[in-house]
């Protein structure tokens, strides 16, 4: 918690005073708010990426590259910040850092291009506006749209919750039994002292 606050304060301070990128290699990327994020843990989704990378600014797009057939992550993504200056902070601080057991590779993106299917859209398509590229957000469903569990996942969650409740009751019983045992020991000690 303290680290997050420190990082947030550092980020706000850096953004307020402005990052001087003139003469820096970051200057070549001043026109792009996108970064490349490589070598991600395959279990991470857009929401996980947002949690990690929002430390350096407001994220407006996460394009996690997924296998078209299976929908599984390919282990890399493109992340866009609201403020381009956040890209320099993210690249400097996250490149070669370890997240979920993998050492990430982070770099600037000079020109982000939306996926091909969005570039091939025709304006005369009656559904043109609905097919345009939009920021992906958590689980690739768009910002403000959150993942809903299907029936099978809900059954599994209920089963896990039930098992946890059962374990908690077992722990409570064990603690009560231990407490009774401790009381007995104290009572036995008192009898010996008298």
Helices and strands, with pairings:
Layout: H1 2-17, E1 34-38, H2 46-53, E2 59-66, E3 73-81, H3 85-94, E4 98-99, E5 102-103, E6 105-108, H4 116-119, H5 128-131, H6 151-193
Antiparallel strand pairs: 1-3, 1-6, 2-3, 4-5
Care to describe what's here?
The chain has 194 residues and is of the alpha+beta class. The chain folds into 2 domains: 2-140, RRM (RNA recognition motif) domain (Alpha-Beta Plaits); 150-194. The chain contains 6 helices and 6 strands; from the N terminus they run αβαββαβββααα. The chain has helices at 2-17, 46-53, 85-94, 116-119, 128-131, 151-193, and strands spanning 34-38, 59-66, 73-81, 98-99, 102-103, 105-108. The protein has a 4-stranded antiparallel sheet with strand order 2-3-1-6, with helices on one face. The chain has a two-stranded antiparallel ribbon with strand order 4-5. The radius of gyration is 26 Å and the shape is elongated.
Spatial strand sequence of the major β-sheet:
2-3-1-6
* Tally of DSSP helical segments: 6
Strand tally is: 6
Assigned CATH class of the largest domain: Alpha Beta
* Low-confidence runs of at least 5 consecutive residues: 143-147
CATH domain fold name of the largest domain: Alpha-Beta Plaits
Number of domains: 2
**Computed Rg:** 26 Å
Global mean pLDDT: 75
Order of H and E elements:
HEHEEHEEEHHH
Major β-sheet annotation? 4 strands, antiparallel
Q: Can you give the helix content as a percent range?
A: 40-55%
CATH architecture of the largest domain: 2-Layer Sandwich
Shape: elongated
């Amino acid at each position: 918690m303290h680290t997050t606050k420190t990082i947030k304060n550092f980020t706000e301070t850096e953004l307020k005073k402005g990052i001087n990128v003139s003469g820096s290699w970051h200057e070549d990327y001043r026109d792009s708010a996108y970064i490349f994020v490589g070598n991600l843990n395959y279990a991470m989704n857009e929401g996980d990426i947002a949690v990690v990378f929002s430390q350096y600014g407001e994220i407006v797009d996460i394009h996690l590259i997924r296998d078209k057939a299976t929908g599984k992550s390919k282990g890399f993504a493109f992340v866009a910040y609201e403020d381009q200056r956040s890209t320099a902070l993210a690249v400097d601080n996250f490149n070669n850092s370890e997240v979920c057991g993998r050492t990430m590779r982070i770099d600037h993106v000079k020109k982000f291009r939306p996926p091909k299917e969005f570039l091939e859209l025709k304006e005369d398509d009656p559904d043109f506006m609905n097919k345009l590229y939009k920021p992906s957000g958590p689980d690739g469903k768009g910002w403000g749209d959150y993942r809903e569990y299907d029936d099978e996942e809900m059954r599994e969650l209920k089963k896990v919750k039930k098992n946890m409740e059962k374990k908690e009751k077992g722990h409570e019983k064990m603690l009560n039994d231990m407490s009774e045992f401790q009381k007995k020991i104290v009572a036995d000690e008192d009898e010996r002292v008298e």
